[in-house]
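Z., the sequence and structure:
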Amino acid sequence: MKTNFSSHDKRIAKEAEWQMRNFLAEMDALINNEQTEIEVAQSEFLDFQKVWVNYDHRKEIVGEAQRNGAVIYRKSESGIV
């Protein structure tokens, strides 16, 4: 069964894709000390997690949960978690 999306639906999907954060670049910046933290909103967590799970240096990045559902990720001081 083929689903037909309206031009409005396609535009919304394209805008959402365009607005998606480049978590890989942000994690690279974190590891290279170009950035001190990454704040991930609750609504972005699954997108972040998909990238983080495959990231070579993921064990060097630790998250601290916030009360509002966001998570702040920082580079581990020791480099090992």
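Helices lie at 7-19, 23-31, 45-52. DSSP finds three helices and three strands in the chain.

Let me know what you think.
H.
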